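Minutes, methods subgroup
Present: GH (chair), OT, SY

1. OT presented the first of two proteins processed in the latest run. Sequence and structure tokens recorded below as shown on screen.
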Amino acid sequence: MTAWVKNCFASFDRRVDGAITFFFKHYGKTKFMVAMSKKAQYLGLEKLFLKGPKAFVYFFLFYLIRDTILYIIIPICFATLVD
């Protein structure tokens, strides 16, 4: 049953050119964050920082804030509500 659901999802995702998996992979990220992630992958963090320190700091802060909210604050709030 689960393999059938996965196959249906994968075939639909292929029809829409991977838009669904892209959405889930980049949920909560701005276009700036996605672009900087790609630059960080092919330039490396040091060269990215040397290229534009201000943009790198913004990129780091956006990720820090986003990840703090997603992985720390929301689970703590959920745990206190459930408890």
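2. SY then presented the second protein from the same run.
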Amino acid sequence: MKVLNQFIKEFGIQFILSISYSLYMQELPKNCDYASLKQFFDKILPFFGASFFFLSWLSGQVVRIRKTLKTEEKLTDIESLITKTVDASVTRIETLIDFVTGKDSYCYIDIVASLPYNGGQVIPFLLHSGSNPVYNINIELEDKIDKKFKKKIYEEINKGDVLQINDFITSEHSESKPIRWHFYINSRNGKFREEIWVDFMDNHWKKRIFLYLMEEGKEDKLILKHIN
């Protein structure tokens, strides 16, 4: 029964049209005897067969084209979905990589002191610049005046953080003892070199900070300059 229903669904219209066309092409028999009916059916069968075959083939092509178009639309939708999914995944991966590596973020040291200069005591800070955290910070300090070296490791510094590091740098200075500090900052996302020069003159202090990005095989690139 299912086969018959499916046959009627797919070929019912073609069947009716083919019979109509065959009857149109051949006059009905005037007599209903066996010979007249046989002769009538023998004449309309070629018309019916040809028209039914042609209509079935034509409808099959229409169905095939419709299925092809639907398949192409689905494939296009799938491709678009895959592209969006891949793009979103790539973006998330890139964001994660940037967060883990620090990307173009960096940290540097700055100092503050009372104005006007009073006593030569300075307070050093480790500051963050960029959108991602900076991890595994290894700082080496070379004091060009005292000829001393110090090292300090900080686990991480995040966006907006300002860390007071007077446990690392504590000293007093005067007009006769300016600051000439050279820092080498090595973190997960790169190496940096920083110079801090401070001169105390006429009861005031003048500060110069230069931060360089160090890349192998390239000249150090100045990325931060601050002169007070």
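Chair's summary of item 2: The chain has a mean pLDDT of 81.
Next meeting: continue with the remaining queue.
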